[in-house]
Amino acid sequence: MNLTDIQELDIIDPFAKHREQFQLPENKVYLDGNSLGIMTKATETRLQNVIQQQWSQDLINSWNDHNWVNLPQTVGEKIAHLIGAEPEQTICCDSISVNLFKALTAALTIVQTQDSERTVVLSTKDNFPTDLYMVQGVAQFLGQHRCQLKLVDESELEQHINSKTALVLATEVNFRTGRRINAKQLVANAHENGALVILDLAHSAGAMPVHLDDWQVDFAVGCTYKYLNGGPGAPAFIYAAKRHHKNMSQPLSGWFGHARPFDFSPEYEPAAGIQQMLTGTPSVLAMSAVDAALDVFKGVSLEKLREKSLQLSDVFHQLLKTHDLDDVLQPIFPEQRSERGSQLSYHYEHAYGLCQALIQRGVVADFRAPNYIRFGFTPLYNSFEDIWQAAEQLRQVLAENEHLDPRWQQRNTVT
Ligand SMILES: Cc1ncc(COP(=O)(O)O)c(C=O)c1O
Ligand SMILES: Nc1c(O)cccc1C(=O)C[C@H](N)C(=O)O
User: Fold this and answer.
1) Which residues carry this modification: N6-(pyridoxal phosphate)lysine (predicted)?
2) Do 316 and 293 lie in a common domain?
3) How many structural domains compose the chain?
């Protein structure tokens, strides 16, 4: 495959025009949208308006006049379209970690009202650590008689669901390997065995079709700073299936989750639906950024987006093969396309040095300890030529031994 073939792919790419909606960094090939998405131009314009008009001029009236007060709901509904959720089940707030606390406590209460013997939260050893830390925190908060974390290999998750399992906490796409689990099958299996499922969509939302309602997922969480391009530390989202709303309660009972917050009543009365998952005042600047960023998805077919994402990853791996590098960098991602997320991860002894040397050449991928390198593909703004450039720079780094530079012997960056 030569550069001309690659450029042909860009010509027929249905998302080629979408690149123009992003503030693309100069002289960079950015393959790290699985950690922090690129800013959209609409976000920049919106934030300028929020700062220069809404906040600086309209001030307190903006809670009504610019609908600040409903941002968690309006942004939540935009996200709902991307995760296969009917209205009134998704809301934008807090971080994944905090939302997991709410989902875990709400779901445990629902299950244990029926069967108090179900105390196990089953998850995977290599789940993203915050997911596991939050279960550990909930176990401390509620006590071991209500919550015990059990960790198993991702490939054996379904086998371990039994009569003690209260919840299965799974991340659809593994942050390290990029492996995608079969969420629909997992939910069916959990429900057959009397357990509920909480799904972490951090690496799925905005990268591929997700069908929470169809799959009958019970609760889900996800972030907006990766494929949804909401910005660093952008607020997360939480989904709770409607069938659980009437039995749902969560202990972070702040006033924004009250049935009538502006009554200022001393008694907490939870809102009836998903609004109960709110706690405090939304971060208006951050949420406005997400709100604007989500508009790039208007009219986008997630099926087509998924196809481009897989094609980008196919082309990248094919180019590594052409350069005889597929033995040097050992794939840890699944061969089956359907089992892949939107990233390719490789094991390589000098992964940190390679990642740093690539950054010096303007190709941004990322490193995960102890020695993995991840290449994230964001089909809305990555071109096929980006992929060609990345593979070519990778070949040159290795040929010139730039990854062995003494500067990279010591790890001194966080990402
Ligand atoms: C799967 C997964 N869950 C959770 C998080 C982080 O959660 P939070 O939004 O609380 O930082 C990440 C990445 O940061 C992640 O990859
Ligand atoms: N959320 C992050 C942050 O606040 C700082 C640096 C990186 C992140 C990430 O998103 C990491 C990411 N979840 C991962 O897949 O590794």
Assistant:
1) 226
2) no
3) 2
Is residue 35 in a domain? no
State which of 278, 297, 316 marks the end of a domain.
297
CATH of the domain at 18: 3.90.1150.10
pLDDT at res. 415 = 73
Q: Say whether both 118 and 166 belong to one domain.
A: yes
Same domain, 111 and 144: yes
Q: What share of the chain is helix, strand, coil (3-state, %, to 5)?
A: 45, 15, 40
297 carries an active-site annotation? no
Atom 7 of ligand 1 has which residue's CA nearest to it? 96
Looking at residue 1, what is its pLDDT? 85
What burial letters (b/e) apply to 396-414, b meaning 16+ CB within 10 Å?
Answer: ebbeeebbeeeebeeeeee
- Residue 145's DSSP bridge partners are none
Atom of ligand 2 nearest to the CA of 175: 15
Would the CB of 413 count as within 6 Å of ligand 2?
A: no
Please tell me whether residues 12 and 90 are part of one structural domain.
no
ipTM here? 0.97
User: Are 373 and 290 within one domain?
Assistant: no
Specify if 42 maps to a domain. Answer: no
Q: Are residues 124 and 213 in the same domain?
A: yes
Residue spans of alpha helices (H) in 36-171: 41-49, 62-65, 71-82, 96-114, 129-142
Domain of residue 270: give its range.
Answer: 49-297
**Residue 177: per-residue pLDDT:** 97
What is the pLDDT at residue 212?
A: 98
Asked whether the bond before 370 is cis by omega within 30 degrees of 0, the reply is yes
User: Taking the C-alpha atoms of 293, 389, 307 and 374 in order, what is their torsion angle to the nearest 10 degrees?
Assistant: -80
Q: Which atom of ligand 1 is least distant from the CA of 130?
A: 4
- pTM to 2 decimals? 0.98
| Mean pLDDT by groups of 10 residues along the chain of 415 residues | 94 98 97 98 98 98 97 98 98 98 98 98 98 98 98 97 98 98 98 98 98 98 98 98 98 98 98 97 98 98 98 97 95 96 97 97 96 97 98 98 94 79
| 128 included as an active-site residue | yes
Binding site listing for pyridoxal 5'-phosphate: 96-97, 128-131, 171, 200, 203, 225, 255, 281
pLDDT at 378: 98
